[in-house]
């Protein structure tokens, strides 16, 4: 894994993804005391950055592997991403989803042609259901975040951000499974100028924060957070990258997440999901640290279940 691998990935997937816009806001700059650049992956195909990693992972499979299809387990955004990427590439996608996944995300998966298997909402049930499909169909399992080709695809969002704004002092991303922050860290390492990468994570699901402290992958006994996309944990492929290249992680409370999301809706006039707002919440929480800095913020997605969203 080197700079060349990232450049090849960017070229490989470019015709299948959007180079998403970067928004700014004078009011939010004044509020935080920083110069903020919001990379809007909520405008990505299927509404999240995960389209990048899913596309790259499928494209790196052999023809024979593609013919047997791909399988993943996901509560929402990667399920949608793999379904749409597979459809674009003429590949079958088998998607294991917990039965409490947001309805809007499940419907989107089906609309993209994903073949859905429901399971109990725990990691063991997800993994068992996915393993059964691999066994029966011969499909290739693609992990939503702990897969090097997924991580390299995710890195392209940070690469685009740094191409447009090469002098960023830092980039902040949400942290869930670790695929986005690991990819962003590689982008910053190879294409930034001493650009730090910082994570935002819900206090209620702070396994990545604790993992960096302990030096081993920690888990969450519960993850009762509005940021449903961040209820997963780090993996053995992305964790070493995070350990090496991520500066630190800022934990945010639930009300700080909803406040940040509300501000983004009101001031940038865009739809972002709670998980996406966590990075901005981290900047709001630690204004002194970010003061007078050029800060990139990756808004990871905008797939909101409007039936359940609460701004109050």
UniProtKB/TrEMBL annotation:
Keyword Lyase belongs to the record: yes
Return the protein name. Threonine dehydratase
Q: Does the keyword Translocase apply?
A: no
One biological process term in Gene Ontology: D-serine biosynthetic process
User: InterPro entries, from UniProt?
Assistant: TrpB-like_PALP, TrpB-like_PALP_sf
Tryptophan synthase beta chain-like PALP domain residues: 13-301
Give one GO term, molecular function aspect.
serine racemase activity
Q: Which domain of life is it from?
A: Bacteria
Species of the source:
Gelidibacter algens
Required cofactor(s) = pyridoxal 5'-phosphate
Query: Could you say which protein family the record assigns here?
Result: Belongs to the serine/threonine dehydratase family.
Q: Keywords on this record? A: Lyase, Pyridoxal phosphate
């Amino acid at each position: 894994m080197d700079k060349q691998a990232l450049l090849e990935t960017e070229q490989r997937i470019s015709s299948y993804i959007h180079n998403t816009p970067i928004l700014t806001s004078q009011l939010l700059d004044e509020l935080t005391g920083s110069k903020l650049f919001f990379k809007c992956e909520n405008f990505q195909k299927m509404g999240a950055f995960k389209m990048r990693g899913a596309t790259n992972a499928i494209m790196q499979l052999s023809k024979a592997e593609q013919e047997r299809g791909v399988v993943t387990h996901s509560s929402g955004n990667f399920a949608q991403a793999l379904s749409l990427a597979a459809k674009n590439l003429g590949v079958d996608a088998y998607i294991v989803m917990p039965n409490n996944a947001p309805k809007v995300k499940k419907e989107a998966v089906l609309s993209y042609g994903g073949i859905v298997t429901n399971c109990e909402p725990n990691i063991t049930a997800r993994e068992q259901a996915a393993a059964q499909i691999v066994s029966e169909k011969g499909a290739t399992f693609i992990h939503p975040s702990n897969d090097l080709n997924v991580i390299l695809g995710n890195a392209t969002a940070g690469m685009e951000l740094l191409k447009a704004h090469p002098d960023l002092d830092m980039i902040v991303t949400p942290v869930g499974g670790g695929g986005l922050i690991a990819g962003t860290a590689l982008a910053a390492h190879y294409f930034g100028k001493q650009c730090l990468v910082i994570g935002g994570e819900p206090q209620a699901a702070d396994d990545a924060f604790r993992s960096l402290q302990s030096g081993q992958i920690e888990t969450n006994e519960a993850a009762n957070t509005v940021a449903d996309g961040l209820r997963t944990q780090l993996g053995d492929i992305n964790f070493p990258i995070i350990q090496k290249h991520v500066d630190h992680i800022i934990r945010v409370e639930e009300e700080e997440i909803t406040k940040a999301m509300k501000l983004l809706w009101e001031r940038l006039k865009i739809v972002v999901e709670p998980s996406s707002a966590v990075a901005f919440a981290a900047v709001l929480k630690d204004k002194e640290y970010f003061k007078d800095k050029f800060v990139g913020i990756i808004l990871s997605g905008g797939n909101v279940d409007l039936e359940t969203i609460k701004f109050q």
